[in-house]
Write a structure and sequence with these properties.
Length: about 250
Amino acid sequence: MNLAIKRIGFLVVVVGIWQLVFALGVFEDIVFPSPMKVGGALFEGFADGDFIKALGASFRHLFMGLSLAILFGTVIGVLLGKSKQSDETAGMYLIALQSIPSIVWVPLAIMLFGFSEFAVVFVVVLGGTFVMALNVRTAIHSVPPHLIRAARTMGTNGIPLFFRVEIPSSIPYFMTGLRLAWAFSWRALMAGELLSNGPGLGYSLRYAQDYARMDQVIAIIIIIGVIGAVVDQIVFSKLEKNVMKRWGLLKT
């Protein structure tokens, strides 16, 4: 309860400062709208269904892209984790690819798929695949050697060893990779949609900017931030903590 009060209090202070800056006229109204006007834009966007349609499209793009990113990232991570030669040759390039900002992939996506939804999904896939692969690779490398030795002593080798020992031991790192893949994919989604022909939150953001609707711009930014925080804290953070506790990596 105390934490919730602190967070609400901080939000009230931020909104208060926002209103004060608006009242002092530091910026023009068209550039820096009041909290009340942004609240009105939020209500208007949900009331007429525009934001709901944009959210539906964005979540569709995210589901397709993130699902593929998890699949590809897991396969690549397992390959690098199990093959020393592959890791030594391709591992460095994977780190380089992961460091590339998602917005950089947008021109390539447009050249390949045009201004279509496939281009957006392509950017999302690239945004989440590499960070997922790196975490899965780390997970495989982090399996305690004594567990592998003990399993081999009892006659478990090859594929049974992988499924019975290495995968269960890798689950905590896999969950961390899943959480990071979501975060990177969500950012990549917005980057891809900004330069798409819609629909989606990113497209709605650019559309509002083109028509100088700063109240809508800020409203959409708030929606993007709130969704990112809520999904991370309510879904992935809790899931990760539960797994960590079950594996004895966190105090209960």
